[in-house]
Amino acid sequence: MKKVLLILSLCLCFLLNLNAQEQSSKFKGKMVYAEVGGPGVLFSLNFDSRFSSASNLGLGYRVGLGFGLGDEWEYSYYNNGGKEYYRSSTKTTSYITIPLGLNYVLGKPNSPHTFEVGIGATILTKKLHVFTSDNWAGKSEGGNFIGHATFMYRRQPLDGGFTWRAGLMPVLGTSGDIELGIAAGIGYIF
Q1: How is the chain split into domains, by residue range?
Q2: What is 28-189's CATH number?
Q3: Residue 156 carries which DSSP code?
Q4: 126 vs 52: CA distance, rounded Å
Q5: What is the 3-state secondary structure (H, E, C) of 126-139?
Q6: pTM above 0.85, yes or no
Q7: Mean pLDDT, consecutive 10-residue segments, the chain of 190 residues?
Q8: 180 Cβ neighbours under 8 A, 6+ residues apart
């Protein structure tokens, strides 16, 4: 009887050790990171996750909170002796951003080197001109949304820990202009 209990105990210890090793090497699917540039405009804190937690690849989402600086335009019109005059001025203001997006991560299943392709929108808390060329700024009031796409290299360890990302971000500005931005971020996978 003692031999059977000893064998069962050893088997149980072996199975528990095997399970612990399997869990420690499994990808941790949630990421928190700070990003400069990108959909948060100037700076943002973000949460990113895959819809399937069994892999570091595939379809996922991002949600963030950030801030930026933008131009608020003021317009005035007056008529002086039959001549019409238009005047515009700008002032720089800060605002809160809420970047939202869907992304797809490509790469080899057991590699920390991945590539992200994504699309999304950023909500601006003020109606502003963001990622807009000067010739448009005088013709519109600005907007509360910008659209974006992301093309990012992501270094994400399979067992969690420190992560970083960098890449390009085409942006559809508040007046319809398309601008090219860059983004870089550091964070933690858990």
Answers
A1: 28-189
A2: 2.40.160.20
A3: -
A4: 35
A5: EEEECCCCHHHHCC
A6: no
A7: 49 44 55 95 95 87 92 71 74 91 94 96 87 58 87 92 96 86 94
A8: 168, 169, 170, 171
